[in-house]
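Figure S7 source data.
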Amino acid sequence: MSENKTMDNLMEAFAGESQANRKYTAYAKQAEKEGKTNAAKLFRAAADAETLHALKHFEVAGKIGNTAANLKDAVAGETHEYKDMYPDFVKAAEAEGNKAAVRTFTYAMKAEEVHARLYAKALEDVDDAEEIFYYLCPVCGNIEKERPENCPICGVPGSKFIEY
Ligand SMILES: [Fe+2]
Ligand SMILES: [Fe+2]
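Tokens for the predicted fe (ii) ion complex:
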């Protein structure tokens, strides 16, 4: 087996484990809603285990650069998502009349545009030591540098934003 095959496999495993983390998190939330505490705990623990696997696969694949390089990569990824991927997805969902999909894609598209801008700014200021706070909208994934009155993307009250 060639070295390239293993590189491909590492990235495939990274994608699969990343997805399993999200899936088990969703299942854990559902189990909590149903009061199935033990199943919820197992889903939470397994979700964290898949994250450990994903992070190690990604590291071994040599995909982690220095922070400036990682910020550049993040700008590129978010830009692709908000400029190309989500606009196409929104159009297709509209054509199929799937309103919930239009909504989740539109929220993500608008939030990714903000993320791209924040990453670009962070790259510019990568050597600045002055502390910055970020505020995450728990509904649409928007990120602001000051707690807003309401989320400019989805309208959620600023009090709900999570500080980082
Ligand atoms: Fe993003
Ligand atoms: Fe929001």
